[in-house]
Amino acid sequence: MINTDFTVEPATWSVDLADLRAVRNEVFVVEQEVPEEDEWDELDAQSQHVLARDPDGRPIGTGRLTPHGKIGRMAVLSDWRGRGVGKAILRVLLEQARARHFEQIEIHAQSHATAFYERAGFTAYGEEFDECGIMHRHMRISLAAIEKPERTLPSANESNLLTSSDRESARAATLAVLESARREVCIFTRDLDPDLLDHSDILEAIKQVAISGPHVQIRILVMESERARVETPRLIALAQRLSSVISLRTPVETIDRRYAGSFLVNDRSAWFERPLASRFEGEGSTYAPGRTAQFQETFNEIWERSEDYVEMRRLEI
Q: Which of 70, 154, 167, 195 could form a disulfide with 158, with the two C-beta atoms 3.0–4.6 Å apart?
């Protein structure tokens, strides 16, 4: 279910030059016939870059964020289009923009791609214009102002890895994701994991996120909903009391119900996954924008296909 065919992570012009150039040369210079002298500029060395790679580490997509708050050079190799690579790249770039306190992001979008950016929240303005022989539109997106996070980009000697091998370490990893959340948590679970999510410390962490301020959103996808209702009474009760913040749905599509694991992600690029929901072994990270983007994209797609679980909302008298 979770797309593991590619990864998306920050890159630097000095270290990843060859891979960045390889993707952009193939897409822009060769495929779209952009003059080579127009493709490369002085902003490359000053910008934040992102690279998508296939399982063998080969570059398949890229994008950049300039010091002036403009996203550009978004490119995905033709064989990888339509597989969520571009969405993941854009999400990481927007995460970088938020971390650098940009209030608004601009983009010169190729006209045929405006729908892609609109789905991400961008708005087009002005008339079409020609850039390097290709018609473009000006687009922009306003980013919600955020306070300086407790942690920004990790330092070279700082470990962000989360691992679990038993119930206690799985609880600790789950808590790490919940406690670093700002306004959003997404949880995919088979039965609300009573050994984890119905534990007092974790219930308190969920509650603290829920009451932390306006615009908070906690979404839970649960497959075995009847079992969850019986085995996680305290979490269900909390969801009932905070129903305006905590939402629950049940996946109904066969493809969505095949996933055997459990995962949670937050809006601060933290994630934790257990490949088998019946076991405690898992891994994650407190800061991995690319991987978090993949989980978030998958969660959102399943959420839209799922049904509200009315029974969990029913207050018992």
A: 154
Domain range list for the chain: 7-142, 161-313
Q: In the structure encoding, which two tokens stand for residue 280, read together?
A: 């405690």
CATH 3.40.630.30 fits 7-142, yes or no: yes
Rounded-to-integer distance, Cα 189 and Cα 248, Å: 11
Residue of 155, 120, 169, 156 whose CA lies nearest to 140: 120
Decide if 248 contacts 139 (C-beta within 8 A): no
pLDDT, tens digit only, all 317 positions of the chain:
555 568 888 888 888 899 999 999 999 999 999 998 889 999 999 999 999 888 888 999 999 999 999 999 999 999 998 888 888 899 889 888 887 888 899 999 999 889 999 988 899 999 999 988 889 999 999 886 434 344 444 433 345 889 999 999 999 999 999 999 988 999 999 888 888 988 899 999 999 999 887 788 999 999 887 776 777 788 888 888 888 899 999 999 988 888 888 999 998 889 999 989 889 999 999 888 878 888 888 899 899 999 987 655 454 43
Q: Measure Cα distances from 165 to 120, 162, 184, 281 in Å.
A: 37, 11, 26, 4
